[in-house]
Amino acid sequence: MKGLGSARVEVANEVGMARLVDTFKVDITKACKRVRMGLGFPSPKYRSTQEIIGASMSAKTIQNIAVIGLGTIGHSVVQMFAVSGCYVRCFDPSSSVRDGLENRIRDNLNQMVDADLFIKGDIETALAKITVCDTEKEALVGAEFVSEAASEELGLKQTLFSRMEKSVDAETILASNTSTHPMTDIARLMQHPDRAIVTHPFNPPHIIPVVEVVPGEHTSEQTIEVATSLLRRVGKQPVRLNKELPGFLVNRIQMAMIREIWDLLDQEVATAEDIDLAVQGSLGFRLAGLGPLKVCDFAGVDLWAQVFSNLADEITSTNKLSKGVRTLVERGDYGTKSGRGFFDYSAPGVLEAQVTARDRGFLEVLKLFHQRPIPTEN
């Protein structure tokens, strides 16, 4: 286990235990000893997890976060919590991923400094909040909120959540960053699924504001409230879904658009470059300022209804993978991860330059996003 800075997470654990002493009347000496031994906080006997969460935890008091999985999404989630003042213990089964975490986060923060969204002198402070652990169990010690960012395999996530549940205290909330699987399915092997919830961010999470909050069939209202409030506290914009369904909200919208784009590309209506340019300079530009339903209002719902009637039969509704995409996958051209996809990233420095340009662009949009007027409810 190593910290990325001088601050030690044990301090935060003892502060957290002082709160538990007041709430649960446990012995502070024994409680501190348990954490140092890697056993976590003592768990009082309550009738249900929901009762424990309701009695002991609010988003304002949560300070200790665990992140399991440090890939594309996970490392960014670590950063998201650390810059907001939380202590973060984290783990990834890959030692190279663990070893590279500090540099990845440091690079992200330097980009934010360049965009005037972070203070350079605070970089070391944020890194000092992070402890990289050698085992999953070690990362879960003292966790009040766990953010899972493992690969999108349902069986793996089911086993992971069942295992994590046994390693954390009864009041700890277990959240998945899945973009696909409903929590009802992920939590199927858990004894207390009422404390499990999906909090789905968008890549890169430390920049993109929205996080989908998707409760499962058994998720308690208290778990939803605490998770949502915590996300607001760390600067995110949580969107709660009222219905659990595969793909949730944004990915369903996104896949409907991508399906049509793939079909247009197969038909050779335009090149890949021109399709991207067309969307960026029209829909992308407009949707950055107005949501799609407000766009309908401004143009006229009657007009949109007529356009739908005219085009509905012409738009693809296939449930089969497009020919072009199938060819790319069969060739192993997966995109940036393989050096080639719809576009070529294989030349030295090309990918790094495009990632930097992407994130700088996102950061500029983020500044404008936070300057927009907040809509009021009628």
In short:
The chain is an alpha/beta fold and 378 residues long.
Note down, in words, how this protein is organized.
With 378 residues, the protein is α/β, with parallel strands linked by helices. It has two domains: 2-240, NAD(P)-binding Rossmann-like Domain (Rossmann fold, 3-Layer(aba) Sandwich), CATH 3.40.50; 250-346, N-(1-d-carboxylethyl)-l-norvaline Dehydrogenase, domain 2 (Orthogonal Bundle). 49% of the residues lie in helices and 10% in strands. It is built from 17 helices and nine strands. The chain is globular and about 55 Å long.
Question: Notable features of this structure?
Answer:
single chain, alpha/beta, N-(1-d-carboxylethyl)-l-norvaline Dehydrogenase, domain 2, Rossmann fold, 378 residues, globular, nine-stranded mixed β-sheet, 9 strands
How many domains, as an integer?
Answer: 2
Please name the CATH architecture of the largest domain. 3-Layer(aba) Sandwich
Corresponding CATH superfamily of the largest domain? NAD(P)-binding Rossmann-like Domain
Query: What is the makeup of the main sheet?
Result: 9 strands, mixed
Radius of gyration: 22 Å
- The low-confidence runs, each spanning 5 or more residues with pLDDT under 50, are 6-49
Number of strands: 9
Helix and strand element order: EHHHEHEHHHEHEHEHEEHEHHHHHH
- The SS-based structural class is alpha/beta
Multimeric organization: single chain
Q: Which band does the percent of strand residues land in?
A: 5-15%
Number of continuous helical runs: 17
The percent range for helix content is 40-55%
Q: Give the overall form.
A: globular
CATH fold topology of the largest domain: Rossmann fold
* Gap from first CA to last CA: 51 Å
User: Could you report the average pLDDT, rounded to the nearest whole number?
Assistant: 87
**Quick one: CATH class of the largest domain?**
Alpha Beta
